[in-house]
């Protein structure tokens, strides 16, 4: 390992790496090390980062090197294993065979399955909530204004909500709202259409989403310092954990009482039971999915709605609306919902928005560590010995300047044929193929996200239906809204304290999973 470039201090100790991660500054540090030392750098005595080429994604993820023990701490319910936490490939494959069919696109689209209904119903509720809480102002979003569970939120420090005294078109905290949507979808998908949460219809219950965030904020201690977790946890964290466990167990008890088939296909709970995993052994899988499946989706939806709401991006919002009206006409009633998910899935501009958002604001920008297994890995004339932890950094790959010009900027048109450059079909296809090779929003290889299809269809349904009915603006009671197109930065320490502009408050947290540093995003909605 002495031949691998990197700073001396990282070579002799793991402490610098841990310290940067504790301070939420590690992604930027790894990017800086790559700039200084090149595509292969040493991160700690036993850990290497490789970036700058899709070859690394292929060697590490497509070739399925096993996960490092970073993931072993994602067990639940007293250390019970699950698909995400399992390390060895054979064990993982055994788990994957039990459930993977339920997550395929054809299973989601199947009319005999409840999943499409779950997504459409949740979308309809989303439209209703936006109407009631913002458009008509009948049920203002007071549950998110001063939440004891969101210590980073502006409302926690200062009264600002609706200081203009509006009666209509009020701000809604969309990060939490999208978290609720995603929790309702994932819990109903995993447990059956009548057995999941209904946070959309019950605003007073939405605090559970904020409580999940409090527990997730312990990521450093959970994954890297599990022995010190209890020492680091505050009373609030402990309380949130108790509440979340109770919330989950209530859902699982309801689902077990109502075990009926989810259409033709069974639910994840039933598939696990059928494969001999019962009680906490099944719950560990479900709990992981409830966590993994709602926060990641909420982050994506929140950043996309935010990007569309920025004044400089008004033309993007208009282009999306144009695409929707051209394909579906205009809504007749206020609760009309586009439910042709197959057609939605194919809309080019909506697709470009989803892709660009998952590139710039990927929910998991941090390294996905794997272990060099039996054989030495030879790269750039360097020999990386078996047992070394190795990873790519999605944040860096998504910003590879030779593939994504002006990489920090939000430019959905990069996913469409370049109209002003008269790009041929062949040139367009090979450019997109190359861009896709560098994308890892859902991971790559056999350990790639199992819920990807559900998340993508759910996000498309939510964004399409919102902008079919409404247009949005950043709430200028919440923050000073800037009209420039500057990229959103990474890392809380980039932001003056307290942040006053939308770009400050939407700065991305520098960690394995990201979120807006203020843990909130207030948007106002207007009928089209
Ligand atoms: C936009 C939303 C989502 C994003 C960005 C996302 C991203 C990811 C990523 C990057 C991984 C691989 C992580 C790693 O190897 O370190 C992963 C794994 C996983 N995700 Fe997601 N995810 C999303 C939604 C979901 C949903 C909705 C579900 C469940 C319905 C889900 C279930 C899983 C599972 C089970 C794994 C582990 C797969 C395995 O090891 O075989 N995810 N996800």
UniProtKB/TrEMBL annotation:
Q: Which family does it belong to?
A: Belongs to the cytochrome P450 family.
- Keywords noted in UniProt: Heme, Iron, Metal-binding, Monooxygenase, Oxidoreductase
Can you say what this protein is called?
Cytochrome P450
Q: Which InterPro entries does its entry note? A: Cyt_P450, Cyt_P450_CS, Cyt_P450_E_grp-IV, Cyt_P450_sf, Cytochrome_P450_monoxygenase
- Signal peptide: which range, if any? none
Q: Which SUPFAM superfamilies does the record associate with it?
A: Cytochrome P450
Q: Which organism is it from?
A: Lodderomyces beijingensis
Cofactor dependence: heme
